[in-house]
Amino acid sequence: MGILQAGSLKEAVTALFGENLRIVGRRPVYGGDINQSYRLSFSDGTSVFMKCNGMNNLSFFEAEAEGLAALGGTGAIGVPRALALGTDRDGRMSFLLMEYLEAAPKTDGYWEVFGRELAALHRADCRSYVPADDNMPYGFKKDNYIGASVQINTPKENWAAFFRECRLLPQIYRAEKYFDSRMRKQCRKLLDNLDSYLPEPEFPSLLHGDLWSGNAICGPDGKAWILDPAVYVGHFEAELAMTELFGKYPASFYEAYSEINRIDSGYQDRRDLYNLYHLLNHLNLFGGSYYNSVQSIVNRF
Predict the structure, then answer these.
(1) Distance CA 231, CA 204 (A)
(2) pTM of the shown model
(3) Number of neighbours of residue 279 by Cβ within 10 angstroms
(4) What pLDDT digit, counting tens, does each position of 209-254 carry?
């Protein structure tokens, strides 16, 4: 993974920056609902971004660092660099240190560049991110997380099988407490017919996996940087669908994207089916307010 593994926060800072550097400030950074986040300021005027959680949650940060490394390895789009991770017994926390990005106002052309760079990510060679088997192109090296939920990434031979067995099925099982017998029957029918709804893509794509509007910022270079990944190899349409779920990007983003990676006319018919995965996850994490959205999509298909 190429990231420093440290036994304490002090050890991480010393190994990264030397013994003469001291932490002189810790300012909370708000926005997430799983981890605590801080801007750590050092005695030389530089800063890093730190996420922390309980001692037992180091696997969250290991998965995030691996996802950032995969995205960054394509060279297609801005991704913050993970610097170090570990546990700190004195602070009773696990932590991840990353480069600190100073957010900047969006400039003219921001959305068009973002669209083209995301398309380049989706067209990048991603064979090395799934265990070596040309017959199983979808998945990832390890399971990871979508929000606070475990995300299953077992390699599969075709896209519909992966989306059924690794995306919808685990979430439907968890959500059954919200479902009556009719809803359970509708879910089984949807899963049985998924192959007829989801076509096999021309090529697999490395996906950020959780690209709602809050997981992209305009960095100091004036371009989009993508954060908090839930990485896997799948169909790029699933990524585009997520960008439309909680605040759609401007039309210029999708037009520029399609210049590099053509969006099929049938995508609009499949968009809500892809987003069913995220709505089920929100139902399981945050409760029944998401039930009607889930039910509406299941009934449609």
Answers:
(1) 13
(2) 0.95
(3) 22
(4) 999 999 999 999 999 999 999 999 999 999 999 999 988 999 999 9
* 184 C-beta neighbours (distance < 10 Å), count: 14
Structure tokens given for 169? 């099925």
Q: In degrees rounded to 5, what are phi and psi of residue 153? A: -125, 30
Residue 143 is among the residues annotated as catalytic for this protein:
no
Helix spans in 127-264 (H) = 159-162, 169-175, 181-192, 194-197, 236-243, 251-260
For residues 109 and 300, give the distance between their C-alpha atoms in angstroms, rounded to a whole number: 37
Residues 6+ apart with CB under 8 A from 225: 77, 78, 79, 80, 101, 216, 217, 218, 219
Provide mean pLDDT across the span 73-89. Answer: 96
Task: Tell me the H-state helices in the chain.
Answer: 9-17, 58-73, 110-123, 159-162, 169-175, 181-192, 194-197, 236-243, 251-260, 267-286, 291-300
Per-residue model confidence (pLDDT) at position 134: 64
pLDDT digits (tens, 9 = 90+) for 189-205: 999 999 999 999 999 99
Q: Which three-class secondary structure string do you get for 205-234?
A: EEECCCCCHHHEEECCCCCEEECCCCCEEE
Q: Which residue has the tokens 């799934």?
A: 130
Which pLDDT tens digit goes with each residue over 20-44? 888 999 999 987 778 999 999 999 9
Cα–Cα dist 84/96, whole Å: 6
| Pairing state between β 144-146 and 93-99 | unpaired
Which position among 210, 221, 228, 269 bears the catalytic label? 210
Give the per-residue pLDDT at 78: 97
Three-class SS state of 246? coil
Q: What is the CA radius of gyration of the chain?
A: 20
Q: What are phi and psi of 51, to 5 degrees?
A: -105, 145
